[in-house]
Amino acid sequence: MANQRTYYSNSVESAVAQARQELGEETLLVDAGPTGEAERHLGAYAVLVESGSDEPETPTGLSRVHEASSSSSAPGGLDAIQSELSRLSILVGSLTAHSPGFGYVPEMNEVAAQLGASGLPHTLIRQILERVERRLGLRHSPEPATESQIRRGIAAELESMLAVSPGLGGDEGRRRVVAFVGPPGAGKTTTLAKLAMRYGIAGRIPSVIVSTDCYRIAASEQLRAYASILGLPFALAETPGALSRVMVEQRQKDLVFIDTPGFGPRDQDFLDEWSSKLNSHSDIQVYLVLPATARCEDLLAAYRRWALFHPTRLIFTHMDETEFHGGWLGLALTTGLPISCLCFGQGVPEDLEVASKPLLLQLLFGGAARAANA
Could you tell me where the beta strands, DSSP code E, fall in 37-169? Predict the structure, then answer.
């Protein structure tokens, strides 16, 4: 029976080299991904390999856990124990995910490692690569597939799975009301200004900017300043009831941009109240704005929290602050929501790109390669 072990190193290549030196040249790369905070001192990547040896071996990750745990009686031992338990959980999860039936053909391993290093969830990687195996007939082919064939297969699968809705979507000849929701600091206000500039000002469409953020100090004043610079009218709706009045007053405007507060975990009552109000207006399209720098797990948690608003599209911000693009793409693939825009900085409106499938694939593959070679 093949033996699987986990190695930690600052690069995937050095971990694989160490594994082949210890276990033999036939050792195969099974999976790789960035280590968590608890394992960071062991190396930047956790690399799972498989050897042809029948001898039961103690996985490298487990042996290091044992060594670290033996010192947990020192002051702060509880933190050390918790760190090692976290590391064990990650290792066991990795071994379980790649139990028999979930392995890839050898030529897929390097690409799988790169996608894992990008932050794309392992469940999605398995789903994508299994589809590519079937598409290319890799398990029954006498000849191994080339890397370019595999990448083209992955690109084709991702293109079929990803959804995009460039810009504001909808029919330009019809009135559009768009609201931006999301956690604090995601960049909703700046994103709104970029879109108002590109579609309202540049498109010469009668527009209005509406702020409902009366919870942060001077938040509405920031948006009022943006509106003044852009030369657009500004309205403030301090309560959900006031929003209905503003909507009636601004009914002649063809584009209505609504900024909302970034409610925190303790603001559930406000979240419920405002989501109910926005949902009562069937003509409002809700855009969920999230930072691309967050892990997929954190983005999924944010999506579940803001799902009360029934968002129809996704916008990702802080794109210039990360090279790991698997996390936010993983959220889009998991939820099935179309991606509308990507924001790469604070510049208004130049640091905004409308979503397209070629752009998304370019970011994923480029980031995956850089992550794996870091």
Answer: 45-51
Domains and CATH numbers, the chain: 1-103 (no CATH), 104-161 (no CATH), 176-355 (3.40.50.300)
| Cis upstream peptide for 265 (omega within 30°) | no
Dihedral-angle region of residue 364 (phi above 0 means left; psi in -120 to 50 means alpha; beta otherwise): alpha
With beta carbons less than 8 A apart as the criterion, state whether 360 and 162 touch. Answer: yes
Q: In whole angstroms, what is the distance from residue 85 CA to residue 87 CA? A: 5
CA atoms within 13 A on the CB side of 369: 7
For the stretch 92-105, pLDDT in tens is 444 444 433 345 66
**Sign of CA pseudo-dihedral 221, 222, 225, 230:** negative
What pLDDT digit, counting tens, does each position of 16-74 carry? 778 888 888 777 777 777 777 777 778 877 888 777 555 444 444 433 333 333 333 34
- Amino acid occupying residue 317: T
Q: Which amino acid is at 43?
A: G
| pTM of structure | 0.70
The residue among 339, 270, 333 whose CA lies nearest residue 305 is 270
- CA-CA distance, 150 to 129, in Å (whole number)? 9
DSSP 10-66: SSHHHHHHHHHHHH-TT-EEEEEEE--GGGGGG-SEEEEEEE---S----HHHHHHH
Tell me the C-alpha to C-alpha distance, in Å, between residue 362 and each of 21, 158, 373: 35, 12, 17
CA-derived radius of gyration, the chain? 24
Helix (H) or strand (E) holding 234: strand 234-236
Interatomic CA distance for residues 353 and 161, integer angstroms: 20
Q: SS3 for 307? A: helix
Q: How far apart are CA 26 and CA 229, in angstroms?
A: 64
